[in-house]
Write a structure and sequence with these properties.
The protein is of the alpha+beta class. The chain has two domains: 33 residues, no CATH class; 92 residues. 17% of the residues lie in helices and 41% in strands. The N and C termini lie far apart (64 Å).
C-alpha cells in the first residue's frame, strides 16, 4: 500500500482519503487493523486474514449511542484446524466518538452460549430484585 495512514484505517471496498489528499479504494482486506468510522452504522467486527473471513459478524445491536456508544455483536471465528466456523459467540464493545470518529475503547467477549445464558440469568435476577426493592 502506498500510504502509511492506510495501515490505520483500511477495510475492503471503502474509499479513503489519505492525509496527503490522495483517494484510495481498498480492494484487499488488511489483517489486524482497527477501523475508525464517522457513523455508528459503519462499525463492525468482521476481520479478514489472507482472504479468509476469520471473524464473521452475524448480528449487531446498538444499546446506546452518542459520545459513548455500546454495541453488542454476535459473531463466529474461523477455526483453520477444523476448517469451519466456531459456535456463536458474543461481544460487547464500547466506542468513544472524538473528532467525529468512533474509536473502540473497551470490549467484553462472551465465549459461548452457555456463558451468555448464565449472564442473562444473573441480570434477570438482579433486575427482578431491583424492581421488587422499588415496589416495597
Amino acid at each position: 500500500m502506498g500510504c502509511a495512514c492506510l495501515r490505520a484505517c483500511a477495510q475492503p471496498g471503502v474509499a479513503l482519503r489519505c492525509i496527503t489528499g490522495t483517494m484510495y479504494r481498498i480492494v484487499q482486506p488488511v489483517a489486524g487493523l482497527r477501523v475508525m468510522t464517522e457513523s455508528i452504522s459503519e462499525l463492525e467486527i468482521t476481520q479478514w486474514e489472507d482472504g479468509v473471513e476469520v471473524v464473521k459478524q452475524v448480528a449487531k445491536q446498538v444499546l446506546t449511542q452518542g459520545a459513548w456508544s455500546t454495541i453488542v455483536y454476535q459473531y463466529q471465528e474461523w477455526d483453520a484446524k477444523k476448517n469451519a466456523y466456531s459456535p456463536m459467540r458474543f461481544t460487547i464493545r464500547r466506542y468513544q466518538k472524538r473528532n467525529g470518529l468512533y474509536k473502540q475503547r473497551s470490549k467484553f467477549n462472551i465465549s459461548s452460549t452457555d456463558q451468555a445464558n448464565k449472564l442473562i440469568d444473573i441480570l434477570q435476577q438482579w433486575v427482578k430484585s431491583d424492581t421488587q426493592d422499588v415496589d416495597a
